[in-house]
Amino acid sequence: MELCVHRRIIAPGALAAAVLLLAIPASAAPRSPGAPGIGDPYYPAYGNGGYDVSHYDLRLKYQPATDLLEGTATLVARTTQDLSSFNLDFLLDVGEVRVNGAKASFRTSGEHELEITPKAPLAKGTPVTVVVRYRGVPSSKKAYGFTSWHRTPDGGVAANEPEAAAWWFPSNDHPLDKATYDVSVQVPDGTQAISNGTLQSTSSRLGWTRWNWRSDKPQATYLATLAVGKFDITTGTTESGIPVLNAYSKDLGGHAGAARASIERTGEIADWLTGYFGPYPYDALGGYVPNTTTGYALETQTRPYYSPRQFANGSNVSVVVHELAHQWYGDDVSLKRWKDIWINEGFARYAQWLWSEHEGEGTAQELADYVYASHPADDPFWTVKPGDPGAENQFGIAVYDRGALAVQALRNEIGDEAFFTILKGWPRKYAHGNASVADFQRYAEEVSGKPLAALFDTWLFQPSKPGVPAARAAAVAKGAGAVAATVPQPRSWKKIAATNGVHEHAGAEHVH
């Protein structure tokens, strides 16, 4: 992503409750409620237990003038335990829920839980179809003190990490439960509705236009996006034949030219990245820039979200590289738990370093040397552990820059041949699935034939600056112990740093 950040405190009781539910012996509760959380220690209430969704069908109607969203969501799922009830993560007002055709009772609880009790209990392994009819004004809803719905002068946008889905559709809101999507959105004529994947069709009737989008590869809930507004749309194909659709708000003002100069290179950059990461994993590509006031970009699957502010100082191709790299690292292979964020952000940042090398503006090694020398040993930068940064530092700059340093250290330890084999092999091994930092270490050891526990511990898990010997072994210590001035700033550095949103200014948003 680009760096986002609203953090929140979650009461330990929420986790305890989830653990308690999971601990009830089967004999005592043959039909027990699904857990209200999927089991992620960073966000105990995110996701849900007891079922797995394979497909979301969202049929929506949105009125830009009032921000009113009406919808019918159909979830195709299968139970993973005997269930007396189960939860969805959702914030809008629900009118009716049906489970396998029969009306179900429901109530809300916690910050964003929709608790559903079907007419009859569900046995483990049962196919389930859940239909939820709802309406509401997304911008009026908050959870944990914030909203992930961005109101714009001509509509609204859902794009945030680690959550945005609850503001526009009911879901199992955690990357572990990926699914395919059909998103059909009715908006007033003259307004566009942008989502992920391929635009299947549009049709107009009685002053309304319906946009039908399809994502036919598994997609995490936070990577699903919706943007409604007045957009200029461009289409094309990459050299390798992938269709590209980009959308630009009509009121970007002075940012419009720089946004186009950057995002219209999406196809070129995606083709370039295939040289490092292997075949592009989807059959659609693009990007969109709505008229939002945020400072981050986000790797929404197949069609990244960019803020106008990304282009305040001219073109910003580096941020496009970052978000497109996520299509492999983060989208195709998604994290198992939010603590595994390094696999997303360390590699997306490293792709920016590779682009710098490609552009002749500083090699990856020169960038590593500069980052290492720029942060003295007492800099709090080194106290963040990219391999498990904590929810409060999940999108901190160290996860990106120290995370990319770890990637360079790995490259130097195992050599280019094994390193680039891993870069391509990882998305293939875990295609459209989930994996952890531990999985990555095992895979890197398997491919390289080298023990890497010490290297991973030093660069990802120690809350301190790697010492001179460790750094020298990793060849990133050219400026060890020196001030940044002793290591020249690569020409690309300012462009790379510009992808950090307003990190330096407000400490509240970053590049996802």
Automatic annotation (TrEMBL):
<dbReference type="GO" id="GO:0008270">
    <property type="term" value="F:zinc ion binding"/>
</dbReference>
<keyword id="KW-0862">Zinc</keyword>
<keyword id="KW-0378">Hydrolase</keyword>
<dbReference type="InterPro" id="IPR027268">
    <property type="entry name" value="Peptidase_M4/M1_CTD_sf"/>
</dbReference>
<keyword id="KW-0482">Metalloprotease</keyword>
<dbReference type="Pfam" id="PF17900">
    <property type="entry name" value="Peptidase_M1_N"/>
</dbReference>
<dbReference type="InterPro" id="IPR042097">
    <property type="entry name" value="Aminopeptidase_N-like_N_sf"/>
</dbReference>
<feature type="domain" description="Peptidase M1 membrane alanine aminopeptidase">
    <location>
        <begin position="314"/>
        <end position="459"/>
    </location>
</feature>
<dbReference type="Pfam" id="PF01433">
    <property type="entry name" value="Peptidase_M1"/>
</dbReference>
<dbReference type="InterPro" id="IPR001930">
    <property type="entry name" value="Peptidase_M1"/>
</dbReference>
<feature type="domain" description="Aminopeptidase N-like N-terminal">
    <location>
        <begin position="54"/>
        <end position="223"/>
    </location>
</feature>
<dbReference type="GO" id="GO:0008237">
    <property type="term" value="F:metallopeptidase activity"/>
</dbReference>
<keyword id="KW-0031">Aminopeptidase</keyword>
<dbReference type="GO" id="GO:0006508">
    <property type="term" value="P:proteolysis"/>
</dbReference>
<dbReference type="InterPro" id="IPR050344">
    <property type="entry name" value="Peptidase_M1_aminopeptidases"/>
</dbReference>
<dbReference type="InterPro" id="IPR014782">
    <property type="entry name" value="Peptidase_M1_dom"/>
</dbReference>
<keyword id="KW-0479">Metal-binding</keyword>
<keyword id="KW-0645">Protease</keyword>
<feature type="signal peptide">
    <location>
        <begin position="1"/>
        <end position="28"/>
    </location>
</feature>
<keyword id="KW-0732">Signal</keyword>
<comment type="similarity">
    <text>Belongs to the peptidase M1 family.</text>
</comment>
<protein>
    <recommendedName>
        <fullName>Aminopeptidase N</fullName>
        <ecNumber>3.4.11.2</ecNumber>
    </recommendedName>
</protein>
<dbReference type="GO" id="GO:0016285">
    <property type="term" value="F:alanyl aminopeptidase activity"/>
</dbReference>
<dbReference type="InterPro" id="IPR045357">
    <property type="entry name" value="Aminopeptidase_N-like_N"/>
</dbReference>
